[in-house]
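Chapter summary example.
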Amino acid sequence: MSDALSLGEALKQFLNKSRLKNKIQSLQISEHWEKIMGVTISRYTEKIEIKNGTLFIYTNVAPLKNELVFQKELIISRMNESIGDILIKEVVVC
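The structure predicted for these 94 residues follows.
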């Protein structure tokens, strides 16, 4: 049996060691954000990004900030489920 990696496995190993990992994960999160959280929340969210397992959500809308703070656990589980991996361990609303 061969020890050769599939292209997908090799790419995954490369990304895990690469400095591009956080940027690619942020893109994945952005793609899933509107689908998971809905159009309204997505519209009033200025930016989302992930750094070292923490999802940063930026918005200037105070009521939305409060709502997102109360939904942290739900956001973590929905986003991880949607991506198919445990990328998010914490949520920070900015």
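To summarize the output: The CA atoms of residues 11 and 90 lie 26 Å apart.
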